Amino acid sequence: MHLKTFKGGIHPPANKLTAQMPLVTLPAPKRVVIALQQHIGAPCQPLVKVGDLVVMGQKIGEHPAAISAPVHSSVSGKVVAIGPVNFSNGKTVNAITIENDFLDTKTEPIGFGKALADLTDLEIRSMIREAGIVGMGGAGFPTAAKLVVPAGKKIDMLVINGVECEPYLTCDHRVILEQPAVILKGIKALMKATGAGHAYIGVKITMEGAIETLHEVVKMEKGIDVVPLASKYPQGEERQLIYAITGREVPSGGLPLDVGIVVCNIGTSWAVGRLMETGMPLIERSVTVTGAVKTPSNFIARVGTMVSDLIDAAGGYSEEPGSVIMGGPMTGLPQFTTEIPFTKQNTGILVLTKNEVQPAPMTDCIHCGSCIEACSYRLMPLYLAKYAQAGNTAGLEKYNILDCRECGSCAYVCPAKLPLMHYMRVGKGYITAKRAAAKK
Amino acid sequence: MQQEKLVIQSAPHIHSSMTTQKIMFYVISALVPAAAAGVFYFGLRALMHLLISILLAVLTEAVVQKLMHQPITIRDGSAILTGLLIGMNLPVAAPLWIGGVGSVFAIALVKQAFGGLGHNFMNPALAARAMMLASWPSFMTNWTTPFDGLATATPLAILKAGIPNTTALPTYWDMFIGNIGGCIGETSALALLLGGVFLIYKEVIDYRIPLAYIGTVYIFGSIFGADGLNSGLFYLLAGGMMLGSIFMATDYVSSPATARGRWIYGIGCGLITMLIRLWGSYPEGVSFSILLMNIAAPLIERFTIPKKFGEVSKKNAK
Any chain A CB within 8 A of the CB of B67? Predict the structure, then answer.
């Protein structure tokens, strides 16, 4: 069978150690640390004070900006601290610490007391906003903002990203296998919220049982299809996913909206489905804890759990760790500490051994062209790396540095082991600085 | 939990197992069958040539880097490869010192003077061959027969000389297996093709350059040769065609890195080769054609940058 896919890309080893491990719901910890920014956009302002009593699902932080998402307490208990804590981006973030009373007293459900069929698109979007749902694939873009169709545009397709192309991670795979009906409910709500007549669920052919499971629940549904995709990285990158499924190229500098498409992660549709079922805001999510841990596992964990606790829940390190990465090995963020709070955006915690993170000897670029072949955006990483090193902004712009989506494919294949993705970021920094200066 | 010293590096945190060093040793191993065939046909003196060239290439690299206070990188295998190619480009009857001189020239002048690995603007081994051919033409065209070492001419030279009796030409089978006069490493098309298939299978080289090169020579040779399709085949099996198209033209540094650029480059190599062979004064054109295309490679590359993904104006979208 000829599978749909994109051009370029790479084939890193899948290492899906946890594909067979069912999702285990972890008990809530003694205290949770709720970061006030778990999304792209304006950071939340706290709505509570130290000493306040809060219930599970209570909104404790929000910001009125359109691009923002409120945060909620994931336990019931007492606010004990508000202030900066170490965060997964290597900096600090303001966070609210809550002492758990282990009563799990729940807040009033979000909703309008209506079934999905009776809700309007506006009501669905406001529920999603109120529930603090963000892109669950890792980017954390506020979902409600994404679903707003600007005047003059029309959305005809919803693309659901069930590809999970990062090696190691399996939390989406498990959600598909275990919660297909809830996912379906979420997809229906998302379709209604955008007015999309069709939904396509992209799933990688190598995700055992996923296509069959989803097919079983959608076969009676009109306008929802499962699309098997080739196993290639970065198949789950938004624009390449759209291209693989629909053949449409999102214009450079544009958005999926420009080709009539909204893309949501499968985890996002699960979160929306749960919201429709229970009315509870987003206070827990699925996560894969894998790599050099004793029992690589898939968990459902409360937002605000410490990452160190999640690693302990997976049996702790199996050997001395080299790097602890939030996310997958291709794009994840390495951490200097594990005393950081787990957030809505965390898809995985990957522990790599000292040996695995040993840098390979670097040589000069030998001009082999592997990076050009790997780049699904058809850029020239080898030129961009040289221009970034030289600070040559004219060259960086001419060769379209801003079109790079930082998937890491070029750096993965490079035989000279050049840190190409790092150079791409450096190069982008030069351009954004230049443009900011020009504005002044 | 005890806080360990954790490594912070830019993503991606995993990398392919391919390294520069591995690539060099893959190419070297792919050349081994052809080098062995050379030793088989031309005797131990051929092996001496290969060893001297390799030794001098590695030594030159180490000495130059030492003098320039740079890290010594002979372990990456690129100097060994250059030395091996130079040795394979010598007639066995040439004096033993000649490959050594070629290696010093290739490494010191063509490679290191321009910045070392990744910065040479032409293929160092080919530049050395051209230099040796220009400096010692009699040594470099002193061809002998396999096994018994009698003076002979290469098939291309026989054709060029216009000897009316074409029975002087070897059979295609002898040309295919390498039982003809020529440079140590270029005569056995069979051994070179084996190496080429291995490199393409291992994704070390791109099939585009050899395919475009070989295809162009075959078509051109068939049209303009005296004997139709047979001539096309003759031009493929004769001279340095296989060694050049599979191992020399595919040198990363001196060939375009873009897909379309590689087609154009391969076709260009083929055209120049055939122009020289058919109408030039030299019987053989592989080295010069590749060197000329080496110089054109950066320009070809600039003109063949792929169109980026999503390159449509926002207005025309949808």
Answer: no
Are A287 and A404 found together in one domain? no
pLDDT > 70? residue B317:
no
The reply to whether A153 falls in a domain is yes
- β-pairing, A23-25 vs A45-46, is unpaired
3-state SS assignment for residue A203: strand
Cβ-Cβ contacts under 8 Å for B256 (sequence gap 6 or more): A369, B262, B264, B265, B297, B298, B300, B301, B304
Q: Tens digit of pLDDT for each residue in B215-274?
A: 999 999 999 988 888 889 999 999 999 999 999 999 999 999 999 999 999 999 999 999
Two tokens, residue A22:
């069912």
How far is CA A401 from each of CA A149, A424, B85, B308, rounded to the nearest angstrom?
Answer: 28, 7, 38, 11
pLDDT tens track for A294-339: 999 999 999 999 999 999 999 999 999 999 999 999 999 999 999 9
Pairwise CB contact (< 8 Å): A335 & B6: yes
- Residue A144 CA from chain centroid, whole number: 15
CA distance A273 to A35: 24
Question: Contact at 8 Å (CB) between B296 and B268?
Answer: yes
Any domain includes A168: yes
A272 and A287 housed in the same domain: no
Question: Quick check: B9 and A380 CB within 8 A?
Answer: no
Whether residues A124 and A94 fall in one domain: no
The answer to whether B2 contacts chain A (CB < 8 Å) is: no
The answer as to whether A359 is a domain residue is no
For CA atoms A241, A242, A244, A248, the dihedral sign is negative
Q: Do A366 and B253 touch (CB under 8 A)?
A: yes
Shared-domain flag, residues A151 and A270: yes
d(CA B84, CA A424): 37
Does residue A147 contact residue A237 with C-beta atoms inside 8 Å?
no
User: What average pLDDT does the segment B192-205 reach?
Assistant: 96
Domain boundary, last residue among A278, A303, A329? A278
How far, in Å, are A290, B68, B246 from residue B89 at the CA level? Answer: 53, 29, 14
Q: Are residues A389 and A347 in the same domain?
A: no
Rg (CA), chain A: 22
Domain count, chain A: 3
Regarding an ipTM greater than 0.85, the answer is yes
| B23: closest chain A residue by CA | A415
Over residues A200-223, mean pLDDT: 94
Which residues of chain A make contact with B200, given a CB cutoff of 8 A? none
**β-pairing, A284-291 with A348-353?**
parallel
Measured CA to CA, the distance from residue A225 to residue A201 in angstroms comes to 6
Question: Model-level pTM?
Answer: 0.93
Domain that holds residue A338: 28-107+281-353
CA distance to partner chain B, nearest, from residue A314 (Å): 14
Spatial distance between the Cα atoms of A378 and A226, rounded to a whole number of angstroms: 28
Chain B residues with CB under 8 Å of A356 CB are 13-14
Instruction: List B residues 147-176 in contact with A (Cβ-Cβ < 8 A).
Output: none
Three-class secondary structure of residue A108 per DSSP: coil
Question: Which tokens belong to A40?
Answer: 């792209």
Q: Give Cα A403 distance to the centre of its chain.
A: 20
| CATH number for A43 | 3.10.20.600
